[in-house]
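pinned: reference chain
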Amino acid sequence: MPGGRLLTALVTLVYALTSAAAAPRLVATDSAPPLPAWTIFCEQHASECMVDLVEPEIIPLTSHTLEIIEAVNRHVNHSITARRDLDHWDKIDQWDLPTDGEGDCEDYQLLKRKFLAEAGLPRRAMRMTVVIDETGQGHAVLTIRTEEGDLILDNRADAVLRLDEVGYEFIKRESSHAVEWLFLEREAPIAVVAMAQ
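pinned: its C-alpha coordinates
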Protein backbone atom coordinates (compact mmCIF):
# COMPACT_ATOMS: atom_id res chain seq x y z
CA MET A 1 0.00 0.00 0.00
CA PRO A 2 2.88 2.47 -0.46
CA GLY A 3 0.99 4.06 -3.38
CA GLY A 4 -2.03 4.69 -1.13
CA ARG A 5 0.12 6.43 1.47
CA LEU A 6 1.72 8.62 -1.16
CA LEU A 7 -1.68 9.58 -2.58
CA THR A 8 -2.98 10.38 0.91
CA ALA A 9 0.08 12.50 1.62
CA LEU A 10 -0.26 14.41 -1.67
CA VAL A 11 -3.97 15.06 -1.17
CA THR A 12 -3.31 16.30 2.37
CA LEU A 13 -0.48 18.55 1.16
CA VAL A 14 -2.59 20.07 -1.64
CA TYR A 15 -5.51 20.63 0.74
CA ALA A 16 -3.27 22.31 3.32
CA LEU A 17 -1.63 24.56 0.75
CA THR A 18 -4.98 25.48 -0.81
CA SER A 19 -6.51 26.27 2.59
CA ALA A 20 -3.56 28.41 3.62
CA ALA A 21 -3.61 30.33 0.34
CA ALA A 22 -7.36 30.87 0.57
CA ALA A 23 -7.20 32.39 4.04
CA PRO A 24 -4.20 34.71 4.40
CA ARG A 25 -3.92 36.04 7.94
CA LEU A 26 -1.80 38.23 10.11
CA VAL A 27 -0.46 36.65 13.27
CA ALA A 28 -0.06 38.78 16.38
CA THR A 29 3.23 38.14 18.15
CA ASP A 30 4.78 40.22 20.93
CA SER A 31 3.38 43.18 22.81
CA ALA A 32 3.89 46.49 20.98
CA PRO A 33 3.84 50.03 22.32
CA PRO A 34 0.55 51.81 21.65
CA LEU A 35 0.51 55.05 19.72
CA PRO A 36 0.15 57.99 22.13
CA ALA A 37 -2.71 59.43 20.03
CA TRP A 38 -4.56 56.10 20.25
CA THR A 39 -4.12 56.08 24.05
CA ILE A 40 -5.67 59.55 24.29
CA PHE A 41 -8.50 58.53 21.94
CA CYS A 42 -9.24 55.48 24.12
CA GLU A 43 -9.28 57.60 27.26
CA GLN A 44 -11.85 59.87 25.63
CA HIS A 45 -13.86 57.10 23.87
CA ALA A 46 -13.41 53.99 26.02
CA SER A 47 -16.31 52.14 24.34
CA GLU A 48 -14.57 52.46 20.97
CA CYS A 49 -11.50 50.63 22.28
CA MET A 50 -13.02 48.06 24.60
CA VAL A 51 -12.53 44.36 23.95
CA ASP A 52 -15.50 42.14 24.74
CA LEU A 53 -14.10 38.64 25.15
CA VAL A 54 -17.59 37.19 24.63
CA GLU A 55 -17.58 38.40 21.02
CA PRO A 56 -15.88 36.25 18.36
CA GLU A 57 -12.46 37.43 17.21
CA ILE A 58 -12.87 35.74 13.82
CA ILE A 59 -16.23 35.93 12.02
CA PRO A 60 -17.87 33.92 9.24
CA LEU A 61 -17.82 35.85 5.97
CA THR A 62 -21.32 35.56 4.53
CA SER A 63 -22.35 37.40 1.38
CA HIS A 64 -24.58 39.63 3.54
CA THR A 65 -21.71 40.49 5.88
CA LEU A 66 -19.43 41.26 2.94
CA GLU A 67 -22.09 43.54 1.41
CA ILE A 68 -22.32 45.49 4.68
CA ILE A 69 -18.53 45.78 4.95
CA GLU A 70 -18.21 46.96 1.34
CA ALA A 71 -21.05 49.48 1.68
CA VAL A 72 -19.62 51.00 4.87
CA ASN A 73 -16.11 51.14 3.39
CA ARG A 74 -17.34 53.00 0.28
CA HIS A 75 -19.68 55.28 2.24
CA VAL A 76 -17.01 56.45 4.69
CA ASN A 77 -14.37 56.82 1.98
CA HIS A 78 -16.70 59.15 0.06
CA SER A 79 -18.11 61.00 3.10
CA ILE A 80 -14.88 62.22 4.67
CA THR A 81 -12.54 64.85 3.25
CA ALA A 82 -8.91 63.86 3.69
CA ARG A 83 -7.00 66.27 5.89
CA ARG A 84 -3.70 65.70 7.68
CA ASP A 85 -3.67 66.02 11.45
CA LEU A 86 -1.14 68.85 11.30
CA ASP A 87 -3.46 70.92 9.11
CA HIS A 88 -6.62 69.82 10.90
CA TRP A 89 -5.64 69.88 14.58
CA ASP A 90 -2.21 71.51 14.52
CA LYS A 91 -0.84 68.22 15.92
CA ILE A 92 1.41 65.59 14.37
CA ASP A 93 -1.01 62.77 15.27
CA GLN A 94 -4.54 62.80 16.64
CA TRP A 95 -7.01 59.94 16.52
CA ASP A 96 -10.67 60.89 16.50
CA LEU A 97 -14.03 60.14 14.97
CA PRO A 98 -14.35 62.59 12.05
CA THR A 99 -17.50 64.34 13.29
CA ASP A 100 -16.62 67.47 11.31
CA GLY A 101 -16.35 65.50 8.04
CA GLU A 102 -12.56 65.72 7.85
CA GLY A 103 -9.80 63.39 8.94
CA ASP A 104 -6.84 61.29 8.02
CA CYS A 105 -6.40 57.55 7.65
CA GLU A 106 -7.07 56.42 11.22
CA ASP A 107 -10.15 58.64 11.49
CA TYR A 108 -11.69 56.96 8.43
CA GLN A 109 -11.04 53.52 9.93
CA LEU A 110 -12.42 54.45 13.36
CA LEU A 111 -15.65 55.64 11.75
CA LYS A 112 -15.90 52.46 9.65
CA ARG A 113 -15.51 50.33 12.76
CA LYS A 114 -18.14 52.39 14.60
CA PHE A 115 -20.66 51.98 11.74
CA LEU A 116 -19.91 48.26 11.34
CA ALA A 117 -20.32 47.67 15.08
CA GLU A 118 -23.65 49.52 14.94
CA ALA A 119 -24.62 47.20 12.05
CA GLY A 120 -23.97 44.19 14.31
CA LEU A 121 -20.40 43.12 13.52
CA PRO A 122 -18.36 42.28 16.62
CA ARG A 123 -15.88 45.03 17.43
CA ARG A 124 -13.44 42.34 18.62
CA ALA A 125 -13.03 41.08 15.03
CA MET A 126 -12.28 44.61 13.75
CA ARG A 127 -8.80 45.77 14.69
CA MET A 128 -7.05 49.04 13.98
CA THR A 129 -3.79 48.25 12.22
CA VAL A 130 -0.63 50.26 11.58
CA VAL A 131 1.26 49.66 8.33
CA ILE A 132 4.08 51.14 6.29
CA ASP A 133 2.83 52.08 2.83
CA GLU A 134 4.59 51.83 -0.54
CA THR A 135 6.29 55.20 0.02
CA GLY A 136 7.66 54.25 3.45
CA GLN A 137 5.10 56.35 5.35
CA GLY A 138 3.04 55.24 8.33
CA HIS A 139 -0.62 54.54 7.55
CA ALA A 140 -3.64 53.06 9.36
CA VAL A 141 -6.10 50.50 8.00
CA LEU A 142 -8.90 48.47 9.56
CA THR A 143 -8.40 44.70 9.61
CA ILE A 144 -11.49 42.53 9.79
CA ARG A 145 -10.66 38.99 10.84
CA THR A 146 -12.82 36.42 9.03
CA GLU A 147 -12.84 32.67 8.52
CA GLU A 148 -11.93 33.41 4.89
CA GLY A 149 -8.82 35.37 5.91
CA ASP A 150 -8.11 38.91 6.99
CA LEU A 151 -9.84 41.71 5.09
CA ILE A 152 -8.34 45.19 4.83
CA LEU A 153 -10.41 48.38 4.74
CA ASP A 154 -8.44 51.38 3.55
CA ASN A 155 -9.40 54.98 2.85
CA ARG A 156 -7.23 54.73 -0.29
CA ALA A 157 -9.34 51.95 -1.84
CA ASP A 158 -13.09 51.53 -2.21
CA ALA A 159 -12.64 47.78 -2.66
CA VAL A 160 -12.39 45.62 0.45
CA LEU A 161 -9.06 43.87 -0.05
CA ARG A 162 -7.72 40.51 1.03
CA LEU A 163 -4.45 40.57 2.88
CA ASP A 164 -2.56 39.25 -0.15
CA GLU A 165 -3.92 42.10 -2.31
CA VAL A 166 -2.29 44.81 -0.20
CA GLY A 167 1.30 45.91 -0.71
CA TYR A 168 1.79 47.27 2.80
CA GLU A 169 4.21 46.14 5.46
CA PHE A 170 2.07 45.28 8.49
CA ILE A 171 3.62 46.50 11.74
CA LYS A 172 1.12 46.17 14.60
CA ARG A 173 -2.57 46.07 15.48
CA GLU A 174 -4.88 46.28 18.43
CA SER A 175 -5.11 43.07 20.40
CA SER A 176 -8.36 41.13 20.36
CA HIS A 177 -7.76 40.03 23.97
CA ALA A 178 -7.01 43.28 25.82
CA VAL A 179 -6.77 47.03 25.27
CA GLU A 180 -3.22 46.89 23.92
CA TRP A 181 -1.22 46.53 20.70
CA LEU A 182 0.67 43.57 19.27
CA PHE A 183 3.38 43.31 16.62
CA LEU A 184 2.36 41.44 13.45
CA GLU A 185 3.73 38.86 11.06
CA ARG A 186 2.15 37.31 8.00
CA GLU A 187 1.06 33.77 8.71
CA ALA A 188 3.33 31.33 6.91
CA PRO A 189 1.51 28.62 4.96
CA ILE A 190 2.01 25.38 6.85
CA ALA A 191 1.54 22.08 5.11
CA VAL A 192 1.05 19.10 7.39
CA VAL A 193 1.44 15.82 5.62
CA ALA A 194 -0.42 12.96 7.27
CA MET A 195 0.88 9.57 6.34
CA ALA A 196 -1.50 6.61 6.53
CA GLN A 197 -0.12 3.84 8.71
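why pinned: Residues 35-179 form a domain with the C8orf32 fold fold (CATH 3.10.620.30). The first strand starts at residue 26 and ends at 32.
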